[in-house]
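Title: Comparing notes on inverse folding

I've been comparing how different people in this forum approach sequence design from structure. To keep things fair, I'm posting one structure and asking everyone to reply with a full sequence. Here's the target:
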């Protein structure tokens, strides 16, 4: 793994205490006068672009994206350090209002917990739109915590003249500190958002090293990448409740110190009838999920990755020739 650009931390203390320091980090790497550090929650209903936004802010993919609602299930922290300021972004699951399942209750608790213990909230909605689902998320915002309205997907709005009156109506719904009409795909908009967020960061030592991008482990990211490919290639066929468990994550090093990560994962589905959706004809869909996940993990981890889809003997053990 590239030590300066792709570093992943296994510690999670900064989720709750942005001023805390990972145990084995050198003091000088975090403590300095004039530095700022703060926790910023990114909240919104499913599929408004929260994960795309956090990936753009961090500058690398750490949160999976999918057109399938409720893809993000965890409170994922992305870290961006610019100048003397460190931004600790929390990408939360979309607040779910359609299904009253145990999973959704747990996800909603994650969202509720995130908005109460941060320095700033980015409330993400689609520009020009406000639905009952948006209203339920907005009701979670805590008094005393500044909130910025992110009018995302501005590039998809055909009538820009309608945005100004819409923004006025949004101000009547909540006392937002600022309004940011933008597209998460536009680098200039991302730079502008950083400048806005920086004003709300308290002066305190950094919570992470300058080169760290997320508090999540590579093992966790591997399971998320596989899950993303699972949803991408099954479309609407497979319920979003399906999950991925990493059974094995081992590193091997060659004579020239080159790294090979061996990863084995199990896809867990809700019903036996869902297995065929994942496997596909002659196992082709399952193999494609594994192959594309491996290719993306190689880019993310900056090393070679070997998965079961590359192992002919293991593929045959599933009954495929």
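Reply #1:
Here's my take.
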């Amino acid at each position: 793994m590239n030590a300066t650009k792709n570093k992943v931390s296994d510690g999670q203390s900064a989720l709750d205490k942005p001023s805390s320091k990972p145990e084995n980090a050198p003091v000088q790497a975090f403590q300095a006068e004039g530095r700022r550090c703060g926790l910023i929650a990114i909240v919104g209903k499913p599929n408004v672009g929260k994960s795309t936004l956090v990936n753009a802010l961090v500058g690398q993919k750490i949160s999976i994206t999918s057109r399938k609602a409720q893809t993000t299930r965890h409170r994922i922290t992305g870290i961006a350090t610019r100048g003397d300021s460190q931004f600790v972004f929390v990408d939360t699951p979309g607040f779910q209002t359609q299904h009253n399942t145990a999973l959704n209750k747990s996800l909603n608790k994650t969202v509720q917990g995130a908005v109460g213990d941060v320095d700033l909230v980015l409330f993400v909605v689609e520009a020009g739109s406000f639905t009952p689902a948006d209203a339920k998320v907005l009701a979670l915002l805590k008094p005393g915590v500044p909130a910025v309205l992110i009018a995302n997907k501005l590039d998809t709005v055909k009538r820009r003249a309608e945005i100004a009156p819409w923004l006025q109506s949004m101000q009547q719904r909540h006392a937002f500190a600022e309004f940011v009409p933008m597209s998460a795909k536009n680098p200039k908009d991302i730079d502008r958002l950083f400048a806005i967020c920086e004003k709300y960061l308290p002066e305190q030592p950094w919570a992470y090293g300058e080169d760290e991008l997320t508090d999540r482990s590579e093992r966790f990211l591997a399971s998320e990448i596989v899950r993303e490919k699972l949803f991408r290639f099954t479309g609407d066929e497979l319920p979003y409740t399906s999950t991925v468990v990493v059974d094995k994550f081992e590193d091997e090093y060659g004579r020239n110190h080159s790294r090979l990560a061996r990863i084995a994962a199990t896809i867990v589905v809700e019903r036996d009838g869902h297995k065929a959706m994942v496997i596909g004809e002659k196992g082709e869909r399952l193999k494609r999920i594994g192959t594309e996940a491996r290719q993306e993990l190689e880019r993310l981890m900056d090393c070679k990755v070997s998965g079961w889809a590359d192992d002919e003997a293991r593929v045959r053990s599933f009954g495929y020739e």
